[in-house]
């Protein structure tokens, strides 16, 4: 049965591609995974490929663009990419904090709280890169109803070692450059999801996308959407729209069980499949070492993953996973014996005053091997680092040798942010602490946000593990950038870390806030002072002194001479 | 205290330098001089820049009239008319025709006999029944009219060819349908499937090929007026916001689905449909090819009585055109692809709609675009626009842009006059001056070339609207004069009161002393 549906899917794909010479291909994908704490991590992915398409060369921006004809590819997004000649772009809008210690790695790396946008664009003289970056973020702000327009120069950096392109970069006359910006205080909500759904060929009316029910999605413990545009020289321009959400199925279950179903999680089931998709696949991670029941019968089940081909289920699909032996779900009381991530990172800003503070970062390497990582910190200009106070310690012992290189971009007051990008070596199974003193600047009166007393959100820092190469062990061929550390490489004695980047949580910094009625106070105070001085002088000069005779003339003469 | 005593005391005090009356008065006067001198400086430093606009020049524009001219060379072939007499007759009739059109501009048309190549247009009056236009040439078939009617008919035809109803002062429905003039339009073509899950949907279209065949010639000709950017996409779910009417016509077993005239006005479901990309600020002309879902076929447009009409298309004024495509009835649920032959009909409608939306005048009835017996089987007749039509459109658009920029500038002048707190910077003044200069150019160039007139008028319109929307003009609206005064009061009141009090006291003393001197 599995084989026949697969064959059917392939034949449908062949018919669509060969009969109409379709240069565009759309596929949709949903994966569900039960987490250790009873929650369910879900990821929707909608991928459109424009075959053999090439991103627009920035040099051609001066010329008229060709007529753009799209079938499945979202037109609005396509036109934005064309008009700003963007080769690669990643936009994520997330709400909540991804809990790495309890949930492990997310399926998609971009889980920074708030908005994050980074793009690779070819440099050009016709229209400058920064002008196009500005246009891109404004256009995306308009498209997704998000305040991405405020990702301006004060938030934009160009990290030199991290955020490498995920696809290929075409060879243009000038090199490609990176622009990266985060907006931690941005929140994702229905107004962002609606334009997101409009970019899909089947909208939310059929196929996997019909499960995207805003009422349920925005009730989830963590949720976020992402748009990735990459160019693959063998495939073409690839756009992937994805939505990740972590649902607390125990909270919403009457019997406190962790059983879930589509109806339960999303309030909907898939009634019709999206005819525009060449593949719509649902993957469910099956539980290990526990009795479970899954219904309906999956199209295939391999390596602990149950697969459903949506087009094969014509009468409606409502996948459900049950733990029949379990009464109420018992929350795990202890952390997992083996940490779920290779690295753990925490970052705090300490210091009671509004002018000084200390940034403390501790990075734990859970691997039995030494690992090399990049730590990327983007700080708004008003939090300045005292770089000379930087201390690297392991178990309270100073270990300056762990810092192998450091790239640092100085901030410009009221302008560019700081970029702090050290490369660190992490000893096996140990925690490296990095501390540094910071000074908080005074902001200008007009620079404060409307709710100034709340403080400023600082963007999350990013930990980027680097691939380590050992000269003695050069044969580790099957490690790709996205695959997890496989048991095979582990058995060779040298384990490659998971190269997925890890985000820290946001920080809130309390800056000195003025009394906002200050300008008026200043005006009134200085006016009073001037009036006082004037009055004294004026009175002294124009007062008419009159001699009052109360005593002999001598006294009067004395009074006058004084 | 007796008077003598006081006098002698005062004498003693006046011995002290600054207590003498004259010095005190001088101190007081100098204070006042400083204050009075500082006043203009204060006024200057706190007031806003308000350059004076060339008001009289702007108002003079309102009464100006555009004058266009056209020379027509007339030849008479194979007819025993007195050419001179005929041309005089036609000319007189044409003047009446043009006057009756109530154009917004003065149109000076001159007819010449014999014809030569230096004329703007040429007319040949022939003894045949076939009338047609080719480029700037009109071949008029006089045989179908009685000889006495010929001058009148020809004048009417020429009037129709040379003017566009867009330029008429009379109220026209067409005016509301035609897009406002813009140098660049975005043409957004959408293939909308009502519901792809129902099967038998259009999965793609040969759009580029269809555009090349049906639209490109027109677009090329219109490039004198506008530039075009083209984009297209396909959608698989485009539900209607209402349910079409169900009706059974005759003894047919297949029910019809009808769109009533009211439903046509709400046909565009902008909440659910994405019909253009919105990547630029250029105005968009939308062209929608709507494929109803398999259960809603055939979908027809109903007339006011509720009977289905033969038409499958309609224009949404200033927005675009819609064509409803009902695929042939089949029982299969196989999806299909719209090839060029299937798109020929919808795209020829799109072409007509495009021309209507851009205000291209139609040829008068009875006039063809080619000789009747010419090789005419390529099926693309009527796509070419003659220079008669284009020139008429150019004149109308030039008039529109001229009128528009004049109105904008009048509004600026009025607004600046009304709102005292509105700053007028140098850039606004420059833009207004530039627009006025461009308008002057329009009036001088209109006589020779409508094309040149349009390009100047366009320039004027751009400058005028840039001046109107200049962000600097709004800067101080929220900081009114009362506010300035309120801020300065804590300074002015305590300083002003002693100054005035001292001045008054001094004056009173002076008057008292004068009176004392007179009585003494």
UniProtKB/TrEMBL annotation, chain A:
<dbReference type="Pfam" id="PF04113">
    <property type="entry name" value="Gpi16"/>
</dbReference>
<protein>
    <submittedName>
        <fullName>Gpi16 subunit, GPI transamidase component</fullName>
    </submittedName>
</protein>
<feature type="compositionally biased region" description="Low complexity">
    <location>
        <begin position="468"/>
        <end position="483"/>
    </location>
</feature>
<keyword id="KW-0732">Signal</keyword>
<feature type="signal peptide">
    <location>
        <begin position="1"/>
        <end position="21"/>
    </location>
</feature>
<dbReference type="GO" id="GO:0042765">
    <property type="term" value="C:GPI-anchor transamidase complex"/>
</dbReference>
<feature type="transmembrane region" description="Helical">
    <location>
        <begin position="520"/>
        <end position="541"/>
    </location>
</feature>
<keyword id="KW-0812">Transmembrane</keyword>
<dbReference type="GO" id="GO:0016255">
    <property type="term" value="P:attachment of GPI anchor to protein"/>
</dbReference>
<feature type="region of interest" description="Disordered">
    <location>
        <begin position="468"/>
        <end position="491"/>
    </location>
</feature>
<dbReference type="InterPro" id="IPR007245">
    <property type="entry name" value="PIG-T"/>
</dbReference>
<keyword id="KW-1133">Transmembrane helix</keyword>
<keyword id="KW-0472">Membrane</keyword>
Automatic annotation (TrEMBL), chain B:
<dbReference type="GO" id="GO:0042765">
    <property type="term" value="C:GPI-anchor transamidase complex"/>
</dbReference>
<comment type="pathway">
    <text>Glycolipid biosynthesis; glycosylphosphatidylinositol-anchor biosynthesis.</text>
</comment>
<protein>
    <recommendedName>
        <fullName>GPI transamidase component PIG-S</fullName>
    </recommendedName>
</protein>
<keyword id="KW-0472">Membrane</keyword>
<dbReference type="InterPro" id="IPR019540">
    <property type="entry name" value="PtdIno-glycan_biosynth_class_S"/>
</dbReference>
<keyword id="KW-0812">Transmembrane</keyword>
<feature type="transmembrane region" description="Helical">
    <location>
        <begin position="485"/>
        <end position="504"/>
    </location>
</feature>
<dbReference type="GO" id="GO:0016255">
    <property type="term" value="P:attachment of GPI anchor to protein"/>
</dbReference>
<dbReference type="GO" id="GO:0006506">
    <property type="term" value="P:GPI anchor biosynthetic process"/>
</dbReference>
<keyword id="KW-1133">Transmembrane helix</keyword>
<keyword id="KW-0337">GPI-anchor biosynthesis</keyword>
<dbReference type="Pfam" id="PF10510">
    <property type="entry name" value="PIG-S"/>
</dbReference>
<keyword id="KW-0325">Glycoprotein</keyword>
<comment type="similarity">
    <text>Belongs to the PIGS family.</text>
</comment>
<keyword id="KW-0256">Endoplasmic reticulum</keyword>
<feature type="transmembrane region" description="Helical">
    <location>
        <begin position="27"/>
        <end position="45"/>
    </location>
</feature>
């Amino acid at each position: 049965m599995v084989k026949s549906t697969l064959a059917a899917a392939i034949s449908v794909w062949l018919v669509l591609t060969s009969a109409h010479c379709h240069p565009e291909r759309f596929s949709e994908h949903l994966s569900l995974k039960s987490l250790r704490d009873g929650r369910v991590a879900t990821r929707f992915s909608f991928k459109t490929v424009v075959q053999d398409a090439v991103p627009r060369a920035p040099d051609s921006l001066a010329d008229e663009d060709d007529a753009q004809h799209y079938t499945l590819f979202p037109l609005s997004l396509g036109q934005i990419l064309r008009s700003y000649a963007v080769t690669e772009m990643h936009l994520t809008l997330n709400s909540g904090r991804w809990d790495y210690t309890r949930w492990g790695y997310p399926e998609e790396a971009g889980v920074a709280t708030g908005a994050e946008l980074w793009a690779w664009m070819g440099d050009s003289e016709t229209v400058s890169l920064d002008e196009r970056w500005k246009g891109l973020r404004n256009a995306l702000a308009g498209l997704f109803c998000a305040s991405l327009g405020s990702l301006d120069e004060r938030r934009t950096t160009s990290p030199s070692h991290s955020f490498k392109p995920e696809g290929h970069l075409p060879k243009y006359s000038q090199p490609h450059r990176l622009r990266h910006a985060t907006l931690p205080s941005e929140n994702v909500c229905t107004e962002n999801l609606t334009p997101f759904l409009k970019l899909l060929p089947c909208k939310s009316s059929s196929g996997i996308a019909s499960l995207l029910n805003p009422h349920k999605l925005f009730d989830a413990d963590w949720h976020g959407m992402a748009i990735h545009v990459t160019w693959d020289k063998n495939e073409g321009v690839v756009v992937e729209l994805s939505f990740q959400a972590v649902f607390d199925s125990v909270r919403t279950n009457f019997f406190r069980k962790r059983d879930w179903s589509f109806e339960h999680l999303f309030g909907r089931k898939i009634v019709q499949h999206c005819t525009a998709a060449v593949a719509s696949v649902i993957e469910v991670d099956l539980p290990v070492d526990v009795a479970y029941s899954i219904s309906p019968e999956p199209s295939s089940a391999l390596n602990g993953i149950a697969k459903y081909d949506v087009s094969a289920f014509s009468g409606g699909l409502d996948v459900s996973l049950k733990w029949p032996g379990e009464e109420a779900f018992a929350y795990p009381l202890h952390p997992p014996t083996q940490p779920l991530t290779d690295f753990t990172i925490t970052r705090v800003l300490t210091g009671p005053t509004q002018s000084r503070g200390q940034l403390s970062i501790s990075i734990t390497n859970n691997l039995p091997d030494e690992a090399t990582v990049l730590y990327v910190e983007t700080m708004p200009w008003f939090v300045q680092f005292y770089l000379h106070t930087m201390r690297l310690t392991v178990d309270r012992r100073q270990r300056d040798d762990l810092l192998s290189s450091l790239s640092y971009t100085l901030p410009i007051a009221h302008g560019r942010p700081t970029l702090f990008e050290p490369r660190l070596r992490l000893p096996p199974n140990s925690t490296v602490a990095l501390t540094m003193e910071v000074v908080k600047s005074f902001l200008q009166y007009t620079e404060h946000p409307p709710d100034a007393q709340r403080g400023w959100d600082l963007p999350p820092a990013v930990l980027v593990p680097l691939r380590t190469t050992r000269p003695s062990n050069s044969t580790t061929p099957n490690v790709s950038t996205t695959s997890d550390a496989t048991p095979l490489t582990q058995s060779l004695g040298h384990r490659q870390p998971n190269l997925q980047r890890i985000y820290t949580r946001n920080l809130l910094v309390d800056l000195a806030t003025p009394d906002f009625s200050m300008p008026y106070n200043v005006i009134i105070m200085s006016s009073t002072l001037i009036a006082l001085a004037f009055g004294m002088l004026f009175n002294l000069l124009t007062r008419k002194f009159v001699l009052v005779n109360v005593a002999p003339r001598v006294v009067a003469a004395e009074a006058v001479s004084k | 205290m007796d008077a003598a005593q006081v006098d002698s005391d005062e004498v003693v005090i006046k011995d002290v330098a600054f207590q003498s009356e004259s010095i005190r008065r001088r101190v007081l006067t100098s204070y006042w001089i400083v204050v009075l001198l500082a006043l203009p400086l204060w006024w200057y430093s706190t007031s806003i820049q308000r350059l004076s606009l060339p008001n009289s020049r702007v108002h003079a524009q309102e009464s100006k009239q555009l004058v266009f001219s056209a020379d027509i060379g007339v030849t008479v072939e194979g007819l025993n008319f007195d050419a001179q007499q005929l041309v005089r007759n036609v000319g007189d009739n044409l003047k009446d025709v043009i006057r009756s059109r109530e154009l917004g501009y003065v149109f000076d048309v001159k007819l010449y006999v014999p014809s030569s190549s230096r004329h703007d247009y040429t007319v040949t009056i022939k003894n045949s029944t076939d009338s047609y236009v080719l480029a700037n040439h009109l071949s008029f078939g006089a045989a179908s009219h009685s000889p006495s009617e010929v001058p009148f008919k020809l004048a009417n035809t020429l009037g129709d060819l040379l003017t566009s109803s867009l330029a008429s002062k009379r109220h026209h429905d067409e005016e509301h349908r035609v897009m406002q003039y813009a140098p660049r339009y975005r043409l957004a073509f959408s293939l909308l499937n009502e519901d792809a899950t129902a099967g038998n949907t259009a999965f793609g279209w040969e759009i580029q090929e269809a555009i090349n065949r049906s639209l490109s010639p027109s677009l090329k000709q219109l490039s004198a007026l506008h530039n075009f950017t083209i984009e297209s996409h396909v959608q698989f779910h485009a539900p209607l916001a209402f349910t079409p009417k169900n009706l059974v016509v005759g003894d047919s077993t297949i029910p019809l689905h009808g769109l009533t005239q009211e439903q046509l006005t709400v046909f565009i479901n902008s909440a659910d449909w994405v019909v253009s990309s919105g990547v630029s600020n250029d105005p968009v002309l939308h062209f929608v090819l709507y494929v109803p879902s398999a259960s809603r076929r055939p979908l027809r447009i109903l007339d006011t009585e509720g009977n289905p009409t033969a038409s499958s298309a309609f224009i949404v004024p200033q927005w675009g055109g819609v064509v409803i495509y009902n695929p042939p009835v089949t029982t299969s649920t196989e999806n299909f692809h719209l090839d060029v032959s299937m798109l020929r009909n919808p795209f020829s409608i799109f072409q007509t709609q495009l021309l209507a939306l851009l205000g291209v005048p139609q040829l008068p009835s009875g006039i063809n675009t080619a000789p009747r017996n010419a090789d005419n089987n390529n099926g693309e007749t009527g796509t070419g626009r003659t220079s008669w039509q284009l020139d008429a459109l150019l004149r109308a658009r030039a008039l529109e842009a001229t009128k528009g920029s004049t109105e904008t500038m009048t509004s600026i002048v009025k607004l600046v006059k009304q709102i005292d707190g509105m700053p007028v910077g140098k850039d606004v003044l420059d833009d207004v001056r530039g627009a006025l200069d461009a308008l002057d150019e329009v009036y001088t160039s209109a006589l020779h070339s409508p094309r040149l007139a349009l390009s100047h008028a366009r320039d004027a319109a751009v400058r005028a609207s840039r001046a109107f929307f200049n962000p600097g003009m709004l800067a101080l609206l929220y900081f009114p004069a009362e506010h300035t005064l309120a801020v300065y009061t804590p300074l002015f009141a305590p300083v002003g009161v002693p100054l005035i009090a001292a001045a008054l006291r001094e004056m009173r003393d002076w008057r008292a002393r004068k009176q004392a001197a007179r009585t003494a």
